[in-house]
Amino acid sequence: MDGSEVILGGWVHEVRNIGKIVFILLRDHSGIVQVIGKEGDVSENVMHSMNLPKESVVMVKGRVKKNGESKLGFEIVPSEIVNLNPLESAIPFEVTGKVPAEIDVRLDNRHIDLRRLDTTSIFNIQSTVLGSFRKTMAKDGFTEIRTPALVEAATEGGADLFKVEYFDRKAFLAQSPQLYKQLAVIGGMDRVFMVVPVFRAEKHNTVFHLNEITQMDAELGFADHNDAIRLLKKAVKNIIKDVVYSNEQDLKRLSADAGEPKVTEIRYAKAVSLLNENNLNIEFGQDFTREQEGALCSILGDLVLVKEYPKRVRAFYSMPNEKDGRVCNSFDLLYKGLEISSGAQRIHKPEMLVQSIKEHGLDSADFDFYINAFRQGAPPHAGWSLGLERLTMKLTGAQNIRECCLFPRDRVRLKP
Ligand code: AMO
Fold it and tell me: What sign for the dihedral angle of Cα 228, 370, 193, 335?
């Protein structure tokens, strides 16, 4: 494009004025280009208009000029610079990253934080994840569905629910699309997937938990947990491959390594023995601690799929295992030491389901619509859910899950 006329829109990343030459580093989501105003080459008026405060939003009209010494191999010689909306207040932190800013300040001013190219890279990667997931599922004949966010009762059990007023009744925000994706399969849709926001009123305050997350779910009819595991492995491998292929620059900018897309499968009982052999004491029946999940990945690889957990640490809808009554046909996928996905074969026999709801301390009356569906021709089925933000965290090397949600909701943050 050497010599071509162009019009660029963006933000002033930096300005350097060295007397007879003024440089503007002009930034948009795709990167940074140098605009160079040399006395003699550009009018006095344009030279003058280049002295802009950082983060001004501008339109630059100019000519592309080849220059082997500049970072991109070219620069822009401006013929007109328009300040589109002069700044009226100070920018709260350095977008260049030269002065590090606290995460809370960044999140309070997310519209500024998103201008940081590191932040842009995280969401470029997240966009690839979503696209890759949809591509895999569509290719395998799955139908994308929407499920409600407003529900009458818990979808996962437990007390981690946000209450809302629903006219003259109480309702809740859904903890997961669980019951609805199962109803879709019972309804004959057979293979469904969804990308939906879910809400967890968990009082955690960690770098791994949010109170609103995006789940990428799948549910398959006429299937058991091993069928669901095969699909999960395929979806996650494709996501990693697609990110490595499409986001090379983003990964480089973040110094991130997505790791090997190879999944090691292990039964819970075997994982317990392995941890005990490595002096990370755990008794059969206990859930893994974060340290133990980390150890399993250190020993077995970046992606570890643990299956057949004890019944009592899993949700009420998990199908008991036929051979070993202590465990159910459930599984978790760990990625670099963090659980990113959970799933199971579901109980599809109504009486077994009522019994399990009771055993989990829940009231079967709350689940009438769900239990009754199992009396009307429910096939065996299985499925899983992948947490979008946790997966993004591990792909990008982010240390805090809040970095991987555009507008995170945690125990204290409800705006912006
Ligand atoms: P689960 O509750 O394990 O399973 O959630 C599935 C995945 O969602 C993510 N996740 C979270 N991420 C951040 N903060 C949270 N508070 C949070 N809670 C969950 C994790 C987790 O692996 N219905 C089942 C899935 C199924 O069986 O199909 C469910 O919701 O990555």
Answer: negative
